Q: What sequence folds into this?
């Protein structure tokens, strides 16, 4: 009788443990779901509680040990995680899940080759493991095998998986692929990525451009492009709507298609319904480039006549339907906000227009109006008052979506990646991003780090206005965008920050700005400074154009910028221009204006590097190379010190390292 009771007790205990494991898995799933960071931390805490109860009753429970390892890994305790995964396998070696866990541990430990071995071991035990197969893709990508990784991601999507990490990984690989021939599968991949609304499509401009170049045989000077065929090309229309394609041949294609549309409109006095999607896409693309696309004189005259016609229609009180075709054609050549009829468009809200027209009107009119209102809050607006409307600087870079990241906290990152003691830090940390440009990186920090408030600083009022508007639209309320003047007053009032990130350097025009002085004043004991050791925008073509600007005393007008670009594109076979043409910045007037008229002041970086080379005040806590791999800090520190002492032989300037310094006192 007693023996029978013990058997029942054991069975009851097993059932209880099974229920606890189920609850632990559910809690762990919630801790990695797209809910708030507070909810995720709470779920992770609950998961720990269930696992603690299981292991108190059965210390050798292999599944519980493995799941606890995943919790520790998510919290950044990589050594604890590795021990738990190993202990779990010692209890039960036949667990593909633990080899998968070890694979992701190796990825977090920056050992992708080892990660691949673990994932393959997991797949040998379970051929159906999507997590392990996806892990192989990540490992291949981190080893630079982008083509192999891309095919792995494609296979995962074909099986119906919709994990954000798959799309994000595939997008990262796409920009590294060398597309040399027409490939219908690659075109389908590009369409799939462009259709996905949550991806930063600005990052696959080269990939999409290469496919379109091959598809339309653009390297063949005798290639013929049919307007009707182009108007039905989903890839081309999506690409024009979603990204910027840094390719001279594709820019020429867009220019020719726009010319063909307006030529037909001139003959028929109407914009065919079949051409409207392509025309709308070209209008959005032209806006994204800052209207860099060149137009012939006859096109300009016809657009001027159309704009006059729109003015007359608005004065006569004509209904929207009668103006839509004219507005689309006008938007292909210039921002509606700059036209004489702009004020009259304000009688309608954006939602009052047809749905298909709304993206163009938002870009060409409503967003610009909102940004202009934001600019009025800053003294720097006075500098724009004397400019022609079309010469007012445009925000750059012209990005569309934030890159995908997992939510975390800055304190966790400082502890796990930089090995810092964060016990004394407050609950909310303050980040300052110097040279934030139009704010993508700054907003990613504010969006994905849930224990921060971000101050983003830039010298371009256009960048500040656009980023402020986008932050509002995305409901990112822990960030502000300021010009340098306000940031300097903020620091002068003895406010401190816990993290400073250096983006684009101030230009030589910012004579009253010293990055080194700002960093010195704004940081206290334990603060981190993150910077890069390379200064971009230094190609032979850039130097030559700056020489021409100085020689002819050119001003940064739209006309001058277009003429400079046209000179480069006309002579693009000349080796002098090759590196410049390869730069994404070249394909937007905002990028060209920044490169040529607001050149980064390299002396600012030298002064800052000299300051942080003082080992009494600063400690180099991490250094990464251009591929993101961690480097030994001691040799890098020695190079920085040698450079500060005047040794050009060991200069880090131009090497493209990412370095993190912590203030000692």
A:
């Amino acid at each position: 009788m007693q023996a029978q009771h013990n058997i029942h007790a054991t069975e009851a205990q097993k059932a209880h443990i099974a229920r606890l494991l189920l609850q632990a898995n559910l809690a762990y799933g919630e801790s990695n779901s797209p809910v708030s960071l507070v909810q995720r931390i709470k779920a992770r805490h609950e998961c720990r509680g269930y696992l603690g109860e299981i292991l108190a009753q059965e210390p050798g429970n292999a599944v519980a040990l493995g799941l606890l390892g995943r919790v520790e890994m998510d919290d950044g305790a990589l050594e604890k995680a590795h021990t738990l995964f190993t202990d779990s396998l010692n209890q039960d070696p036949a667990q593909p899940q633990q080899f998968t866990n070890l694979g992701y541990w190796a990825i977090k430990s920056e050992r992708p080759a080892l990660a691949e071995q673990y994932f393959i071991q997991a797949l040998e035990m379970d051929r159906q493991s999507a997590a392990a197969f996806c892990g192989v893709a990540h490992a291949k990508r981190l080893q630079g095998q982008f083509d192999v990784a891309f095919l792995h991601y494609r296979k995962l999507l074909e099986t119906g998986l919709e994990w954000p990490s798959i799309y994000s990984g595939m997008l990262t690989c796409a920009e590294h692929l060398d597309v040399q021939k027409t490939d219908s599968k690659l075109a389908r991949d590009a369409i799939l990525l462009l259709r996905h609304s949550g991806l930063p499509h600005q990052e696959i401009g080269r990939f999409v451009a290469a496919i379109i170049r091959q598809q339309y045989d653009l390297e063949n000077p005798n290639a013929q492009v049919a307007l009707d065929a182009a108007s039905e090309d989903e890839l081309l229309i999506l690409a024009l709507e979603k990204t910027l394609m840094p390719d001279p041949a594709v820019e020429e294609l867009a220019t020719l298609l726009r010319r063909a549309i307006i030529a037909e409109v001139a003959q028929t006095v109407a914009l065919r319904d079949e051409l409207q999607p392509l025309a709308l896409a070209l209008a959005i693309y032209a806006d994204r480039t800052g209207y860099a696309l060149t137009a012939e004189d006859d096109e300009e005259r016809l657009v001027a006549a159309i704009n006059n016609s729109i003015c007359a229609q608005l004065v006569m009180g004509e209904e929207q339907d009668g103006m839509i075709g004219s507005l689309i054609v006008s938007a292909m050549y210039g921002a509606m906000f700059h036209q004489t009829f702009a004020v009259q468009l304000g009688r309608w809200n954006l939602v009052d227009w047809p749905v298909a027209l709304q993206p163009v009107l938002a870009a060409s009119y409503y967003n610009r109006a909102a940004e202009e209102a934001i600019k009025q809050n800053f003294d720097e607006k006075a500098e724009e008052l004397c400019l022609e409307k079309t010469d007012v600087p445009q925000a750059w870079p012209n990005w569309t979506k934030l890159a995908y990241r997992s939510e975390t906290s800055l304190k966790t990152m400082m502890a796990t990646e930089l090995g810092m003691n964060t016990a004394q830090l407050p609950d909310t940390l303050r980040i300052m991003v110097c040279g934030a440009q139009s704010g993508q990186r700054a907003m990613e920090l504010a969006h994905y780090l849930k224990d921060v408030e971000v101050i983003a600083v830039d010298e371009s009022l256009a960048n500040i206005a656009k980023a402020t508007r986008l932050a509002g639209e995305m409901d990112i309320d822990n960030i502000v965008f300021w010009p340098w003047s306000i940031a300097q007053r903020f620091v002068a009032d003895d406010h401190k920050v816990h993290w400073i990130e250096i983006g684009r350097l101030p230009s030589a025009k910012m004579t009253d700005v010293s990055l080194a002085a700002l960093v010195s004043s704004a940081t206290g004991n334990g603060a981190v400074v993150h910077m890069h050791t390379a200064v971009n925008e230094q190609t032979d073509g850039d130097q030559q154009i700056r020489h021409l600007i100085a020689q002819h005393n050119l001003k940064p007008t739209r006309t001058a910028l277009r003429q400079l670009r046209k000179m480069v594109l006309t002579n693009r076979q000349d080796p002098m221009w090759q590196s410049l043409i390869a730069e994404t910045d070249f394909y937007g007037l905002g990028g060209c204006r920044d490169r040529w008229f607001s050149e980064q002041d390299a002396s600012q970086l030298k002064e800052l590097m000299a300051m942080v080379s003082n080992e009494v005040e600063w400690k180099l806590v991490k250094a990464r190379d251009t591929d993101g791999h961690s480097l030994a800090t001691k040799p890098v520190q020695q190079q920085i010190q040698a450079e500060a002492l005047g040794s050009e032989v060991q200069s880090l300037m131009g090497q493209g390292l990412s370095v993190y310094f912590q203030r000692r006192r």
